[in-house]
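Page 47, continued from p. 46.
Same chain as before, 80 aa.
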Amino acid sequence: MTTMKHAHPFSHAAATTATETGGFFDKALGLLSSVKRRWSEETEIRQAVAELEQLDDRALRDIGLNRYDLEDSVRKHHQH
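Result:
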């Protein structure tokens, strides 16, 4: 005689919901991590631009920069 085990009727639904919820939280944490990283990058870029803005035009020319392209130059350098 074999005995059949009956699963709880909601066990599959609960497992599916837990998996979906875990996926949601993983995605949310990934998004927050991405936002934090981007915020840090922006802070670094703005600090670098602010420091370079303190230099006079001659000093900027000596390092190959001009005042009008500082932010673009810093962003391009930061990507590499």
